[in-house]
Amino acid sequence: MIGNVYSTICPGCNFGCGLYIRENGELEVDFRKSSPANAGKLCRFGMSLPRFYTPARSIVDGRETTLDEAAKEAAKRISSTKGSVAFLSLGNTTCEEHLAFQKLAESFGSLYTGVELGALPGDVHQTLSVGIPYSEIEAAKHIVLFIDPYEQYPLIVRRLLLAKKKGAKITSIWWKDMPLADENLRPADTSKLQLTGDSLIIADFHPLSDTEQVKSLLALAKNAGAKITFLKPFVNSTGAYILSMDAKQKSLAQLIEDINKGTIKTLFCLESDILELMPEAIAKLTNLIVQTGQESAITKKAHIVIAHEPLYKKRGTLINNEGRAQAPGGAGTGGLEALGTIAGTKFDFDSLHESVKKMIGITAVDEFTVPAYERPTYAAPRATAKPPDAKILLASVYNPFMWSGLADDNDFVELSLNMVRALKLLKGGTVKINYNGSLLEKKFKVAPVQDNVLLTGKRIGIEKGAITPVEVSR
Amino acid sequence: MQKGEMFLGWSTKEDIRKRGGSGGLVTSVLAAALDKKLVDSVVVLKKINDFEAVPVITSDVNEVLNSAGSLHSVPSNFAKLIANKNLKVALPAKGCDVRGIIEQGKRNTIKLDNTFIIGLNCGGSMHPTVTREMLEVMYKIRPEDVHGEEIEKGKLIFETKDGKEHAITIDELEEKGYGRRESCRYCTIKIPNNADLACGNWGVTGELAGKATFVEVNSEKGAELLQNAVDAGYVQIQKPDEKGIAARARIKGAMEGLSRKWKEKVFIPMDNRLEYFRKELENCIDCGACKTVCPTCSCGDVSKCTEFHYRGDAYKMSMYHLVRFLHLADSCIGCGQCTDVCPVDIPLTRLYRRFANPVQEELKYEPGMDLRRPPYFEVKLND
């Protein structure tokens, strides 16, 4: 921190974009042009951080209180429901906090990181956890995208364009044509893909990833001798996955099932807003405890909110998608202290930091160095990914706004001109979307999208996972 | 002391002379302004390393005295930093910073009467990330080993911690895609006579070379600022000799000539402009960073470019960009900030200048160079 300026990392995804946050009564975003991951450049979400960082207030059952009181009350409720408590940390906080939280989870309940690592062979965990350096993306000769780079991980776009300038061919496998791609294929046409040892597959891995799809991508890369890298949606996804690799952890789907069965009654979310991902399950909880640095949809539903400093004021370590160790920017340890109160112990930052460095395999936090991570080979997993057989599909394009529940200017679905013609939709009008009797009317945008697909970058309330079969009409 | 006079000056404090660039005059003038209450605050760059410095607004004289010297790899942007803050402030500024501040003044977000601008001669700045790569690729040195940098006789020289100097001509660097930011290459404002003072090392000759700053007083405020520093005992000044004045003018002329050549090289006339603009903008992700960073834009969140634009529209070129092309045709100062911050590397400054160059030439209007209102401000519905 220099004066009122924090040198920090954008919490929008795991890309590791550096920026300055200036506190001037209100927050201002400033561009940190020396940042190695993004050269100071920011996407829509990064530019929206003053909105994202709305300060949270500590609350117990609707009454405002202090952080300490909220943490003590959380400790009571966790102790009284021991055995039916779930601890969820998706990777939105520092390694040190995540590690302390993991210790807490091991004492009182089960740790959920959201991803289904347990359903995937152990020899692919490292490949899923740590991506390749961005310089390797720029140097690739053939890049195959299984993401929408513009919407999901916008700062990868310039790396792809730089690769293209150097002669790379870019193939996109998506429901929509990508302007930067030399070749646009649809997901159903993956078999037409011609991969070689010079190919690099870029996909993503997150709590709503289809495990069979992940396996099939890993097998695709393995069988062709191609490289594969997974991008991730949370600021410290990589750190969280490395630290929890040997811990017993469960997925988001498992959490929903456990809540629905009644085996989980208390949920403690560390910097993780999953309200939009599982609203029905959240409503069934006896205790929803949220520890966070900023207000969001879930803080309004929580029985207990433990509010501390936001990420840009925290002390600790973040690991970006390449494995670069970065500092979030501040000196605050309020989150760690609250976890100590709940655990009935004191979490010492320095010893946690030493453990983190050892587990990650680094000697210092130096954002200008990409540590050499092991990239073990793996056996091609057996995959049974089935293409969706519905006539019309609604596909969710998960992006930083969606994961954080922050509103964006995208209250529309994208669809093709052929669909517009077939349904006789009117310019400036809406399209009706029906799922199991739930009817929605949405504005639409004409885009080069697969003819039987609607794309949405905003949760519209009828989704069942990444792909939802729907009916559409005028 | 009055407008039009020229001086050579240096700090009276030895440590500032050693640490600051060219005798530490600028740092001392800023500190004196704060110390003697000519202003309430000063903008300084707090150096983190040779490639990063954070601009901060301070009221602490010691903080000013401890601030950075010359940093070519920190393309600052001060106009937006001080806008809408109602400050009585002094600050150092490159030519484009000065132009941005003056344009904000015309738009009533900065009170120019309360703003003391120390202009810095500028041959161009470099993007820090590009500079780091350039050091490794062209100079074969680690960025962490760099101790200092300077530009001399057309060469960019880096000094490493072992005391060695590493020099490559700027022409060679720019041929390989490194060196100055593109907008700096064709910028013609080398000595900022639009600021209250214009300072730099061009024209400092003989024994004083490297130890003093050449100052030109451009306004009554500039005279007040410099006189205050002399009266407060922060700086010493003397008149430059004719040789120095001539050398300064010669360097200025040569630099401006190079800029004009670059301008011709970058802005080659083209056919099918519409297709060119569509292609360049096809990767836009609607982040709005180019507007946020633009030192001449003062509209805030509610503006025509954002209000006329809806992400659900499927136009081949967004209304956001079309409105900005129109707005910037008379107001773009070519600072390069929009290109610097574009997350998908659209060469936005080049696109804006494609409109601005002919319009500003036709209207004989250079934004930020004086207090003339932007021509489009004067357009009425019945015109």
Would you mind describing this structure in some detail?
The complex is a heterodimer of chains A (474) and B (383). Chain A has 474 residues and is an alpha/beta fold. Chain A folds into four domains: 5-47, no CATH class; 55-111 and 237-351, 3-Layer(aba) Sandwich (Rossmann fold); 117-231, Dimethylsulfoxide Reductase, domain 2, CATH 3.40.228.10; 392-473, Beta Barrel (Barwin-like endoglucanases), CATH 2.40.40. Helix content of chain A is 29%, strand content 23%. Chain A is built from 17 helices and 24 strands. In chain A, the strands form five sheets. In chain A, strands 5-4-16-15-14-6-7-13 form an eight-stranded mixed sheet. A six-stranded mixed barrel of chain A has the order 19-23-20-22-21-24. A five-stranded parallel sheet of chain A has the order 10-9-8-11-12. In chain A, a hairpin with a 2-residue loop joins strand 4 (59-60) and strand 5 (63-64). In chain A, helix 3 (67-80) packs parallel to helix 14, helix 4 (95-108) runs parallel beside helix 14 and helix 4 (95-108) packs across helix 15. Chain A is globular and about 60 Å long. The relative contact order of chain A is 0.16. Chain B has 383 residues and is an alpha/beta fold. Chain B folds into three domains: 6-124 and 188-261, no CATH class; 128-179, Nuclear Transport Factor 2, Chain: A, CATH 3.10.450; 268-378. In chain B, 39% of the residues lie in helices and 17% in strands. An eight-stranded mixed sheet of chain B has the order 3-2-4-5-9-10-1-11. A three-stranded antiparallel sheet of chain B has the order 6-7-8. The model of chain B has no long low-confidence stretch (mean pLDDT 93). Classes of the chains: A alpha/beta (474), B alpha/beta (383).
